[in-house]
């Protein structure tokens, strides 16, 4: 909710307004969170992307660039998740928004250095290989690969990357979360961006990647 409020306040990106949210009821010690928000027009881009004409894809990608550039203008001096305290926006640790069952893999502090953040994140991933996946057939090369990746970090890091602050990144900037419909000129228009649940500020090099739905990667098969 805070992420959507921040984007609505700082950009022209179409985001659903949240009318009410909270927690209701308690059954056997458990409560039920709820959120009532605006219904935006359009259908998920994932329904249309594979069959789109090139002209329509070009139009959508130009709008995707505009969205990314607007998010890039929202900068904070720390890496973490946005929250509002009074009239001020602040950054809290990633563990603040951790989903149930993965809080042990979320970082419990904010960072003002990309080097420190990447190192802490890589260390967490290595610990996850041991604590959560030890003995799993899916973990055959995981620890060694994650150790190797952590060893690369000092060579990838440049202090200058931290000088302009840390931009806001949508946590799942994928085609199923981009709503589109046909505009008056027949070209598709982005009408909404949804699923802001894992939004956080990130290092510049983490932000500057292509959206997954236009990347040829086995993850998308």
Question: What features would you highlight for this structure?
Answer:
30% helix, 221 residues, three-stranded antiparallel sheet, 10 strands, 22% strand, alpha+beta
Helix content: 25-40%
Q: Please report the total strand number as a whole number.
A: 10
Series of secondary-structure elements, N-terminal to C-terminal: HEEEHEEEHHEEEEH
Side by side, the strands of the main sheet go 3-8-9
- Cα-based radius of gyration, to the nearest Å: 19 Å
Number of contiguous helices:
5
Oligomer: single chain
What about the largest sheet?
3 strands, antiparallel
End-to-end separation: 31 Å
Mean pLDDT: 85
Please tell me about this protein's structure.
The structure is a single chain. α3 runs antiparallel to α4. The chain has a three-stranded antiparallel β-sheet with strand order 3-8-9, covered by helices on one side. By secondary structure, the chain is an alpha+beta fold. It has helices at 2-10, 54-73, 114-131, 142-156, 204-207; strands at 18-27, 30-37, 43-44, 75-76, 81-85, 88-92, 166-169, 178-182, 188-193, 200-201. It is globular. The chain is 30% helix and 22% strand.
Structural topology:
Blueprint lengths: L1 H9 L7 E10 L2 E8 L5 E2 L9 H20 L1 E2 L4 E5 L2 E5 L21 H18 L10 H15 L9 E4 L8 E5 L5 E6 L6 E2 L2 H4 L14
Antiparallel strand pairs: 1-2, 3-8, 4-7, 5-6, 7-10, 8-9
Helix pairs in contact: 3-4
Quick summary of this structure?
This protein has five helices and ten strands. The chain has 221 residues and is of the alpha+beta class.
